[in-house]
Amino acid sequence: MRKTVLLLSIIMLTQTIYAQDIQVYHGRKKETTVYNSKGESVTNYRLYKKQKDAVSIRILNPNPIFYKYELKYQESEIEAESKEITDLLVQISVALVARTTPPVAGAAPGVEPTYKIYQDALNKLLDEINTAKKYVAGSDNPELPKEAREFRRTGGLRKAIDQIDALPATANHFNDPKLLDNLNTLCNQIVNIDDYIKKGLLLLNTSIVQNVNNIKKSATDQAVATVITADFNVTEKKGEIYLVISKADPNATVKRDFHSGTEQIKLATVIPYYERAVLEIVPVGNFLFAGQEKEFFIENNIVGSREVKKTRFMPGVVLNVNAFRFGETREMSLGFGPGYNFTSANNAFNNFYLSTLFSYKNIIRVGAGFGFAQYADGLKDGATVDNPLPAKIENLDKVIVYKEKPTFFLTIAIAGLNLTKKN
């Protein structure tokens, strides 16, 4: 049943391996390799992320028995998830008691057979523990990169896990699910033995079983399925992710790459995407092109009119929807939306047009549109062309009649000016 669950887990992990942003093969010295989310070997990897996004890193073949894995972002250490990493960094320290025959001096002749059964079971168990320790020591030999990426169990910690799992599981053996109970049962069956000796043997059983459990806890599939997900403080500036691999035991002799902390494996340069709101309110300046327009003026106290061709400038605002984003960091966008021009005609806010707007960050924002704007069309309140203004009228602008006319707009936004917060 355990192997079936294990197989299903491996299949699921194989299907999701490329979901990680960064994958790391921990090889022998100078063989450690970084892969992108597509499984391609990369150097100087540029990883594009949204600000405040999580970065997911997978070590394809970690061995937390011998190594510690730490992440650094720029100069600040990033804590890995405690349940997935910290609990797995278990150092194996199996200090077995020397196999000497417990003192049974003065015991009755009937003691030896029952003690011999216990002693033989204990010695076999100790042999299996030593075998498991050899498997763990051998796990420092990494599998090949291709084998690690395909989750083959032909080397490294995965192979050691299978070897340890294959040790006997019958009563009083390494994988016995009731190992402590069965050892204590054998111990309690020893007759004619002093209580203090029996208590010592029971404590010995507890110590040995604890050693067995330590080995099992360190050599698990959870240890080699490590996915580090860390929330980096990604800002608008670029950052760099480093992996520091150090020895779990500073005095141990190991075979793979490890780094003291001053040497770091650069995994990627994080380049944040440019943050831009989907919907923006953008103050703009509009140049209006409507061809010929009528202009009224006063010359020698006589009202006159003429057809002129000129470009007008009006302040306005655009409700811009950033529909398309592109560029290396999505710093450019193409949007559209309704725009309005502020005009003094009749104190109105009624010049409407439909605008497109190209943006490079908030530095360059230009666009074009088509809509309606108000232009002078005639006179009212008795004012007429080629005649003086009526006596009661002091300002020509007060008697000009405006009419909406189809107009082309050239829109320019002031650099950095935006009334909407970024996402």
How much of the sequence is in beta strands?
Answer: 25-35%
The amount of helix comes to 10-25%
Uncertain residue segments:
1-18, 75-111
Which strands sit side by side, in order, in the main sheet?
10-13-14-15-16-17
Number of helices: 7
Broad shape: rod-shaped
Computed CA radius of gyration, to the nearest angstrom: 40 Å
Strands, count: 17
Mean pLDDT: 75
Report, as a whole number of angstroms, the end-to-end distance.
Answer: 49 Å
Structural class: alpha+beta
- Helix-strand string: HEEEEEEHHHHHHEEEEEEEEEEE
Largest sheet: 6 strands, antiparallel, barrel
Number of domains: 3
Description:
The chain is α+β, with helices and mostly antiparallel strands and 423 residues long. The protein folds into three domains: 2-85 and 226-272, Immunoglobulin-like; 111-218; 279-413, no CATH class. It has helices at 2-16, 111-138, 145-149, 156-165, 179-188, 195-218, 221-224, and strands spanning 22-25, 33-35, 46-49, 54-59, 67-73, 76-78, 227-231, 239-247, 265-272, 279-289, 292-299, 302-309, 312-326, 332-341, 351-360, 364-379, 400-413. The strands form four sheets. The protein has a six-stranded antiparallel beta barrel. A five-stranded mixed beta sheet has the order 3-9-8-5-6, with no helix packed on it. Helix 2 packs antiparallel against helix 4 (156-165), helix 2 runs parallel beside helix 6 and helix 5 packs antiparallel against helix 6. The radius of gyration is 40 Å and the shape is rod-shaped.
